[in-house]
Amino acid sequence: MEFTIQREDLLKELQRLQGVVEKKNTIPILSNTYLAAVKDDLELVATDLELGIRTSARAKVSKDGAITLSSKKLFEIVRLLPEDQVSFKLEDNHWVQILCARSRFRMVGLPKDEFPPLPAYDFGKAIPLELKTFRNMVSRVLFASTADDARYPLQGVLAILNKSHLTLVATDGHRLACVSGKVARKEAERELRVIVPRKTLSEISRIDWGDSEELLFGVHENRVFFKSGGLMLASATVEGVFPTFEKVIPKENDKLLELGVGQFTDAVRRVSLLSNERSRAVKLSLQPGKLEIFSSNPEMGEAREMVEVGYRGGELEIGFNARYLLDFLGAVGEEKFTLHLKDEQTQGMLTPLLTGEIEYRYIVMPMRI
Fold first, then answer.
1. What pLDDT score was predicted for residue 279?
2. Residues 6 or more apart from 12 whose CB is under 8 A from it?
């Protein structure tokens, strides 16, 4: 194997792989990036066995071949190289010579045959999604999923594609985020229902997709696939039964409160500074024309702030986890939102004031204070 590639092009593709690379070193080959030089392309692959990414870049290939090299070290080397051409040459015993300007490196790799292949998928059957809208939807629900190993189905996001309408749902048992809208550019022949791991969707949000406007989405057996241009993700799905989320969405919350995102965010942040560090509880006291936000901590003190609101309903006191409120406020992407309440024992619902083409609902369980 022998090829030359622009440092900028190589760095861009290596950055796309970094979130997938196995860092625990339980299986050495999973800490490596697979590099294959064929004709005028360099193919790069990384996997942790659950999630895999394949990408490619233009290269001047003198001799076809493949090798695997340490992802971390290769990325660190390329990141610090000057902006110039980088040459790779595979030598005996899996050694690779890397040249760039006045820099010279020799890295030892592992055989290409030890690298696990990614599952194949016929993207002719895939459904095209609007990439920007899909990533926006993901950002509004992903934070509500959990990393708790004991609640495996909640470690992912439920995706339901019905014709051209996509719904994403995430919950950790204390709050639930649900977003839906017409995002598919072609109707699905049948309803697709799958739990996508949070890491997979996190990578879709993190990766620089360049000028891509469309993301192909497909499901086959226990795998989900995403592709745009020369970049492809293949992921295992999350097994198990996702909760019946429709039952959690309140239907009779008749106390409606319109609030400015910026003003309410600042107030909650200030008041929560003296909340219990474990529960992060804040109390909302609602009266005609005003809302008081209150927190207390026996070891630190208490804080309260008054916010003027256009509310004409009855009095109500209800407690929420401040972090859960702030998560929604950071993701809503609007200037105003509506808080839907019923009583101190019923879950509250938060929605953007202007829904547009995307419907976003965020449900939070109340706390006793």
1. 94
2. 57, 208
Cβ–Cβ < 8 Å for 99, 87: yes
The domain covering 249-364 belongs, at the CATH homologous superfamily level, to: DNA Polymerase III, subunit A, domain 2 (3.10.150.10)
- State the Cα–Cα distance between residues 82 and 68, nearest whole angstrom: 23
Q: What is the distance, to the nearest Å, from the Cα of residue 87 to the centroid of all Cα atoms in its chain?
A: 34
Separation CA 49–CA 332 (nearest Å)? 33
pLDDT at 149: 67
pLDDT in tens, 76-106: 999 999 999 999 999 999 999 999 999 999 9
Report, in angstroms and rounded to the nearest whole number, the Rg of the chain calculated over CA atoms: 25
Sequence ranges of the chain with CATH classification 3.10.150.10: 2-114, 123-246, 249-364
How far is the C-alpha of 19 from the C-alpha of 137, rounded, in Å?
20
Which residue blocks in the chain are alpha helix, DSSP H?
7-17, 71-80, 131-141, 198-206, 261-272, 322-331
Q: Are 132 and 183 in contact (CB under 8 A)?
A: no
Topology at the third CATH level for domain 123-246:
DNA Polymerase III; Chain A, domain 2 (3.10.150)
